[in-house]
Amino acid sequence: xxxxxxxxxxxxxxxxxxxxxxxxxxxxxxxxxxxxxxxxxxxxxxxxxxxxxxxxxxxxxxxxxxxxxxxxxxxxxxxxxxxxxxxxxxxxxxxxxxxxxxxxxxxxxxxxxxxxxxxxxxxxxxxxxxxxxxxxxxxxxxxxxxxxxxxxxxxxxxxxxxxxxxxxxxxxxxxxxxxxxxxxxxxxxxxxxxxxxxxxxxxxxxxxxxxxxxxxxxxxxxxxxxxxxxxxxxxxxxxxxxxxxxxxxxxxxxxxxxxxxxxxxxxxxxxxxxxxxxxxxxxxxxxxxxxxxxxxxxxxxxxxxxxxxxxxxxxxxxxxxxxxxxxxxxxxxxxxxxxxxxxxxxxxxxxxxxxxxxxxxxxxxxxxxxxxxxxxxxxxxxxxxxxxxxxxxxxxxxxxxxx
Length: 403
Prior knowledge:
This protein is α/β, with parallel strands linked by helices. The chain is 29% helix and 15% strand.
């Protein structure tokens, strides 16, 4: 039984909010001196409100975050904060090719949506802190398209490994895999033997830069619960491409990052396990996301020179057991990823960003055919992402049918 919310007098509330405001203003001064944009850690808004109103029943789950954004110039909600951020601007990361317009940032990779790989198996994420029920707040207004700088990320620079066969790798694990041997290793599954593909979206609300008719009501920056405009729509397109190629597809269209972003990997893993139990023919799990690339107040979109239509790039992420959590067969996932990567760089040069091997496992211990696919960035439009996923889907289907 839940305890009733503690009542706080209006005077106490006002005093605590005044104290929080004073802290915010102090932080604002520090931020202005430091310069540059800062990402607000996940849950900091709830923390601010908890300090100001301990025990209160709150109807505005994002009020604390909004207050901090207003107080701290250049701050934004962090895209990937369920585990320690992987790629900060330390001068040793992304290689940016000559962008389509203007210059690109140095090592501002915010690619991987970090999972709760920090404690016991499958239970590491903190509990949701958002209140129950309807918040009663009015819908956010539609947001206009933002100017984005185009860039093609090839990986031919420092911070990457040349894995041969045109494949470049950003390796964040503690291992040095034998890429050639893994690439030549046959897969243990194929569409010809009845393999089914599960498409799921751990962060299904991730959306794109509004443009043309693809205008949506944002539930958070670059996010919407409207599945016509977020990555679930991109998953629909991948499902169509694979099905037309004779591959059996199960598309989970649920949003696992709402009403709370915290715990999204735990929730999606529970669904993956349920799908595998109900459909044991599933051999491949594609967790489809979109990336976010911003730095120094600039928004970036990836550009692939493929076909006649504007096209985003695709990045595959393969998890490992470097974080210490059990994932003994991650190299089989890497074999799968390398085969898809090789197909992309062979058939559609510039479509693929460098393959990333992460220290985290991203729920990929569930099957030996599990990967994250990042389709475009928050600077790309939905149409650019849809174009990219068609090419990616063709490569994935080829790997599955030729295996």
